[in-house]
Amino acid sequence: MRISSLGLCVLLPVVTAYSNQVPLGEYLPETTQSPDYYQFKWPIRRVAIIGAGVGGLIAYRELTETGYDVHLYERDDSPGGNWHYSEETPVDTPIPSVDVTIGDYVPSLPPRGAALPYVEEYDDPVENESRKRAHRAPKPIWDSLTSNAPAPVQQIRELPWPAGTPWALPNRKLQRYLRAFASWHGLNNNDNNPNVSYNTRVELIEKRYDADGKEAGWSLTLKELISTNNNKLRATWVNEDFDAVVIATGRYNAPNVPKIPGLKELAERFPEYLVHSRQYRVPEPYQDQTVLIVGAGTSGGEIARDIIKHAKKVYQSIRPETFPIPERPQGIFLSRIPHNVSIVGEIKQFITKGSQLSEGLVELSNGTVLTGIDRIIFATGYRYTYPFLPQYHNSSLGINDHAAPGEAQPIVTDGTHLRSLYLDAFYIPDPTLTFINANFGMQSFTYAEFLSLAIAKIWSGKADFPSTATLWKKYAEVYKERRGYGRHFQFLGAVRTREGLRFFQGWLNDAAVKYGGKQIDGLPKDTAEVSAVWIRARFGANGNYGINAVDVGRLSAAGFNTTGFEDVSIDGTESWAQDLVYNDYW
Ligand SMILES: Cc1cc2nc3c(=O)[nH]c(=O)nc-3n(C[C@H](O)[C@H](O)[C@H](O)COP(=O)(O)OP(=O)(O)OC[C@H]3O[C@@H](n4cnc5c(N)ncnc54)[C@H](O)[C@@H]3O)c2cc1C
Ligand SMILES: NC(=O)c1ccc[n+]([C@@H]2O[C@H](COP(=O)([O-])OP(=O)(O)OC[C@H]3O[C@@H](n4cnc5c(N)ncnc54)[C@H](OP(=O)(O)O)[C@@H]3O)[C@@H](O)[C@H]2O)c1
After folding, report:
1. Residue 19 — very low, low, confident or very high, per pLDDT cuts 50/70/90?
2. From which residue to which does the signal peptide run (predicted)?
3. Which ligand has the minimum distance to the alpha carbon of residue 292?
4. Which of 302, 311, 335, 503 has the fewest CB atoms lying closer than 10 Å?
5. Is the CB of residue 78 below 6 angstroms from any atom belonging to ligand 2?
6. 418: which DSSP letter?
7. Torsional sign, CA 93, 99, 100, 106
8. Who has greater pLDDT, 558 or 206?
């Protein structure tokens, strides 16, 4: 059953849709929980972490130090997550995107009823190559990519960058750094830690029940895929039981490719010339080509900078922002896009013609038609999805519809945001299921430390956790404060990040006084100052436009309303400018 309070408003920008909503509070699921603190239904000892990116590695450290029996599963062959660059690219993504429940992969399960461990071997070298890529998922970064946060901000506090480290961090340096952190904790792929499994993808996470039919934790179906000595691939499926789970699988696994009229037909005709930004590696293949980049978030902007030196012409399609929050000068991001990139408005439709992509037409919303396009890159972002948790996906709900009380409360609906999580981390109906780094507009390298410590303390009873009724009440307040669902729902930004970390610090340090255990320091006081310098260098005076950070001429040519942005300059201390350090919300 669905409670639809939206009707046509679903089609309107989120801010409009939100104002028509019945408050979430009216749909709060019923609970019999005592009004006091939450009581876990079973003791938590054995814990699984999914993902060996910075979030999973930090969670492993924190939970192990607290005394849990921790097991880490990583689909890739080494640690580092997003920062493991490889020339190898991910398998093709559907263009346009398909239902988000399918996510970035369809879970691969052993035959029903098969005894575990269940083993299969494959020997076709061509199929094996794509099997391996689909399993490990090469990461969505490119050769020239450097950090968009400065080194003093993007670091794990236990492992500070040496003094004098250049602030822009090349991706390989970040990968080496994360490998070093993993090694320090005995988690690297050459450490032979029996509690860490690389090449192992989590296929399914299900509730586990005891002999009396009571919930008793989680059961994981895991698939390891490795090369054998005789050039075959061997897949082994096993089941493992855990008391609690940390999902640290990152936010950038499933590409978002918009459903633009005519796109499906174009992609079917010329699949090799349309890619998502996660497949982009180097600019040379774009030599002398006319390229259309759709989207001007960080990926779109940085890829435009990379290929403009090689391409014959680059068009960049942008669209008016739909976010109700945060408020900021529209189009500020254009200040990093070179002048010789042609900014154009939103695409209305693709028209396939002739035997080559370049013979087709791209019609924009303002009626302009682009011709002669040789290649298209969709830098249109990602969707949240957890293919291994199908029971918490419900793509039939409208953007601000809620599941009825008594029904399963979904975590993923349309992939733009996550639901039913307290602090964007604890699944409210069962907080033995948790998520690390599920927000954006924050700094993953530091945020994960606070979250991991909170999880460790709560599960061990060393910090009070509110009752289920209180969690839903707080959730309803957050829903209201964030002005309803949409991509902005997961956004933190500089101010909320600072407030959030202060909240964690106060909560966890109070708990340490009450129950003993570790305390945690706040972030260094100069973070805001470091950010201000970095932002001025990246977007302000040293950017393309001198002191005036918004190129209104370019924006209005692309159909944007630029009123009020004529004289926007960046000092770097403005709260919206501080958000740019994380640079990942437009
Ligand atoms: C192009 C790009 C550039 C970025 N640049 C910056 C930047 O400059 N600065 C910055 O701070 N952040 C940047 N980010 C954000 C980046 O995601 C974070 O820096 C950081 O990597 C987040 O860490 P994580 O551990 O949460 O996730 P990830 O690093 O994504 O790690 C998740 C891990 O989970 C594994 N995994 C996923 N699914 C499964 C499964 N089913 N089973 C087992 N393992 C699984 C993945 O293989 C991966 O290793 C960028 C992101 C992108 C896409
Ligand atoms: N270190 C680096 O240099 C670097 C480089 C790349 C990425 N990153 C990080 O990687 C993460 C993901 O960034 P991302 O840029 O891939 O994704 P993103 O931030 O989600 O940006 C996607 C962009 O595509 C736009 N878009 C979607 N559909 C569109 C359409 N039909 N027409 C025009 N535009 C459309 C979106 O606009 P709406 O806002 O309207 O939806 C949004 O601006 C971020 O954390 C970012 O910081 C870092």
Report:
1. very low
2. 1-17
3. 2
4. 503
5. no
6. B
7. negative
8. 206
- Ligand 2 near 415 CB (within 6 A): no
Residue ranges matching CATH 3.50.50.60 in the chain: 6-84+115-254+392-515, 257-380+531-580
pLDDT for 22 beyond 80: no
Residue 492: name the closest of 423, 571, 414, 427 by CA.
423
Element containing residue 221 per DSSP (H, E): strand 215-227
Please give the number of the atom of ligand 1 that sits closest to the Cα of 79: 49
Pocket flag, ligand 2, residue 350 (CB < 6 Å): no
Residue 282 has pLDDT above 60, yes or no: yes
Measured CA distances, 390 to 97, 106, 238, 363, 507 (Å): 18, 10, 19, 37, 33
Q: Is the pLDDT of residue 267 over 70?
A: yes
- pLDDT of 346 over the 60 cut: yes
Confidence of residue 14 (pLDDT cuts 50, 70, 90): very low
Pocket test for ligand 2, best of 139, 350, 380, 439 (most atoms within 8 A of CB): 380
Query: 129: which 2 tokens?
Result: 């190559």
Ligand 2 mean position, distance from CA 378 (Å): 9
Q: Average pLDDT in the 468-493 region?
A: 94
Atom of ligand 1 nearest to the CA of 153: 11
Q: What is the pLDDT of residue 548?
A: 53
Domain 257-380+531-580: top CATH class: alpha beta
**pLDDT level of residue 540 (50, 70, 90 thresholds):** low
Q: Radius of gyration over alpha carbons of the chain, in Å? A: 24
